[in-house]
Amino acid sequence: MADDPRAALDRMVAALEAHLGACQRRRGDEDPAVDSTFRALADAFEHYDDALYNAYDEVMPFVLDDDSDDSDDSDDSDDDDDDDSDDDDGHDDDDLIDDDDFEDAPARA
């Protein structure tokens, strides 16, 4: 059974509050409370996104990063400068949302 979007949203808001609280009480760079609430927030976001899609065929306007690519500690900014897909900000142009993607979409309030 799919989650109710309202209940999933309430869990996500609670996870946001918990994460903020953990960040405010942070005790160093590797604080396990911050890491724990970070993972809980990511999980709550995914549940909300799934519930929203299942109920209304709608998605959130952003996605979470896949941590599997983080196993390589090399700095991507040292890559070959001949790659035209990266802007000066280091973001891949293919990952950016273009305003043209929303031309035919109905306006939202």
Catalogue the unreliable spans. 76-91, 102-109
Described by strand count, sense and barrel closure, the largest sheet is: none
What is the helix/strand order? HH
Gyration radius from CA atoms, angstroms = 18 Å
Helix content: 40-55%
What is the tally of helical segments? 2
Distance between the termini: 30 Å
Structural class: mainly alpha
What is the average per-residue confidence, as pLDDT, rounded to a whole number? 76
- What fraction strand? under 5%
Described by the principal axes of the CA atoms, the overall outline is elongated
Q: What's the number of extended β-strand segments? A: 0
Provide structural commentary.
With 109 residues, the protein is mainly α. The chain is 41% helix and 0% strand. The chain is built from 2 helices and no strands. Helix 1 runs antiparallel to helix 2 (32-56). It starts with a helix and ends in a 53-residue tail after the last helix. Residues 76-91 and 102-109 have low confidence and may be disordered.
How do you describe this structure in short?
The protein has 109 residues and is an all-alpha fold.
Give the SSE map.
Layout: H1 5-24, H2 32-56
Helix pairs in contact: 1-2
List the main descriptive attributes of the protein structure presented here.
0% strand; 41% helix; single chain; disordered C terminus; 109 residues
